[in-house]
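Dear colleague,

Following up on yesterday's call, I've attached the two folding results inline so they're easy to grep. Please treat them as preliminary; we haven't cross-checked anything against experimental data yet. The first protein's sequence and structure tokens come first.
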Amino acid sequence: MRTSRLEAFSDGVLAIIITIMVLELRVPEGHNLSDLVHTAGVGLLTYLLTFLYVGIYWNNHHHMFHLVDRVSGGVLWANLALLFSLSLFPFSTAWVDDSRLARTPVVIYGLNLLAAAVAYFVLQTVIIQQQGPESPLRQAIGADLKGKISPVFYLSGIISALTVDRKGHVGVFIALACFVAVAIMWIVPDRRIDRVTRRYGTPA
């Protein structure tokens, strides 16, 4: 089957994820900036970080399927696994917010990010196997350095939250710094797929 239904469904799920997240933000009871900071300060920051992640996945997903003309059952299931991982973002983000950056919610958030990264890698791998030895996607991603580094950052953040300064918040802040670093690394536009798309043309 062609990719249009898969892409439309994925776009809809990602739009719903963003909508759910913004609805989780609490409205300040007062009318001053201090009320906003006190009520929704942490929530706005965690929402921003997760919004960036959703945007990054949507962007990469959109570009990846420029190099795919048909999808198999394996691709459909791998894509659903990715959407399942991403659909947990509102839950893990809200828990981090409600707990005011407590250790366990931050670890779960990191595991959620790691699960999404693994699911995306699996989807990418299934597509490459479907396309065969001359896979345009394989040529586009090359060594995929960022894809290999990201899980290392996620694991480092999770381990830091679990082991560093267990009675304080140093480990949690190290974990959040790792998660932010990955987002910054991926927010820079990746031109690899664009170059290969121009070479092969966009699938009809």
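Below is the second protein, in the same order (sequence, then structure):
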Amino acid sequence: MRRRGMTRRSLVAGAAGLVAAMTTGGDAVASPVRQGGGEARLARGELRGVWIATVANLDWPSKKGLTAAAQQAELIAHLDRAVELRLNAVVLQVRPTADALWPSPYEPWADCLTGVQGQDPGWDPLATAVREAHDRGLELHAWFNPYRVANHTDPARLAASHPARRNPDWVLPYGGKLYYNPGLPEVRRFVQDAMLDAVRRYEIDAVHWDDYFYPYPVAGEAFKDDAAYERYGGGFPDKAAWRRDNVDRLVREMGERIRETRQGVRFGISPFAVWRNKATDPLGSDTRAGVETYDDLHADTRKWVKEGWIDYIAPQVYFKEQRPDQAVSYSSLVSWWAKTVRGTGVDLYIGEALYKVNSEDWPASELTDHLDIAARYPEATGHVFFSAKVVQQDPKGVMTAIAERWAR
């Protein structure tokens, strides 16, 4: 049984349309009635999504400092392309580096818009994205990164109003980047509040997180959270267990607070696809991956599914199908995740590495084969493609081929 997502879909199916509450500069306005084209597809249980990354201007805007009109035109082009390719959801990154693509009272405007963090771009990208997506029958999943503060280690480069500058004890440098310290309860509460502002003010369809929790390990460098562990780690057998509990609390509390804030908004997470290898844990996948989220990112992704804290999981299965020399295969992970979600009510969507088709090593048939493999598992009810710029490029015609398959 699907929980909040199915409730929302049922309401949409039984109504002529849904009027979405929008905000621009903090003032509520009504959006046009949704036509439900995407809803009809989702009611059959399949999600077909694309990630639109804004960090470092990966997908959108194409560069910093474009006019508001140019930014809007590029965004709408991504939405129109999604419709052309028979997608029904877009996952838009709206909090890339502890800043915002809406007028947030908690955090500054994102620098990917104007090139200056904190500078008003002259429009509300999230409001426009929700309205324009819904007008096209697309779901809008708002993608947030909970802990990343900057892709550099100089707090002085942040906007003067940035919470990380006002609260320097919240921040730790690691691997050439700045992160909020997940071990501090005040940090956990703050990042939830900042994200929930968007849930409260916009008719987004889902809150979406990616694979960044504790940072990916950097050889020879320690994440220096000893002080927080000394203060809050009593009762845990080791620091790793304490760190996992910190992330568990973030996930569990966020799910609870989303439900309290706005019914019908789903909560999904897109982790690195390997929870643990079977050699590490008999419950793990038949893989030999170098990174395991449970041990390396302190993200117990399997637990979040089993406990029902989230509505969907979209593991980034960015691997080819099995070859003799491979440590990980696509089918081994899809099979493991299908078994993991079975009977939980949590939806499974497969994250697809469309960008790898640009390499000679990935023929277009690799992606179409992935859809055939996933179709063997009734638990796998959708795919999300990374990323929007590559969807626009349609390398080797693979997205056109996939859209033609969906049309049959």
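For the second protein, one point worth flagging: Residues 4-147+179-407 form a domain with the TIM Barrel fold (CATH 3.20.20.80).

Best wishes,
A.L.
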